[in-house]
Amino acid sequence: MDIGTRLEGVLVGRLEKIDAAGIPWVDLPGTEGGAQRARTAVGVAAADVGRDVVTALEEGDPSRPIILGVLRPPSKGAVEAQVDGEAVVVTGRREVVLRCGKASITLTKAGKVLIQGTYVSTRSSGVNRIKGGSVQIN
Questions:
Q1: SS percent in the chain: helix, strand, coil, step 5
Q2: DSSP letter string, 70-111
Q3: Rg of the chain's alpha carbons, rounded to an integer?
Q4: Which domains, from first to last, does the chain contain?
Q5: What region does 22 belong to: left with phi over 0, alpha with psi -120 to 50, or beta?
């Protein structure tokens, strides 16, 4: 493709790398010169390298790609995570499990909160309340 060629519309390219400065590089089909530095309208991470990305070309210039999104495989009941800068919400249809070694916290659709570990400690500088229909210790 010669230097004066303009491409219009949306292209699907491949995220080739994210360099040490955090700049993504995209390889677009039908363009010459290999991967190009890209700007991005969405967050991309090292885990996205090798994935297809939806790109637009600034002023139709193939050397000025802008990443609009990362294509994901179809979801099979996967967990949804949303980050808004103030809180992180993780949603699961049936349950959510946080696990590290022998410790886990499980939230179920039925409203159960299960905390398991080889050592469980709770601390509070204020009131530490335990409330329930019944409370069993041991």
A1: 5, 40, 55
A2: E--PPPSSPPEEEE-SS-EEEE-SSEEEEEETTEEEEEETTS
A3: 23
A4: 10-70 (2.40.50.140), 80-116 (no CATH)
A5: left
For the stretch 54-88, pLDDT in tens is: 999 998 888 899 999 999 877 665 555 666 667 77
Alpha-carbon distance of 62 to 56, in angstroms, equals 9
pTM as predicted: 0.55
User: What is the three-class DSSP state of 67?
Assistant: strand
Between the CA of residue 35 and those of 25, 70, 102, what are the distances in Å?
6, 16, 44
Q: What angle do CA 75, 103, 79 make, to 5 degrees?
A: 15
- Those residues whose C-beta lies under 8 Å from the C-beta of residue 47, and which sit 6 or more positions away, are none
Residues with Cβ within 8 Å of 69's Cβ and at least 6 positions away in sequence, in order, are 41, 42, 53, 54
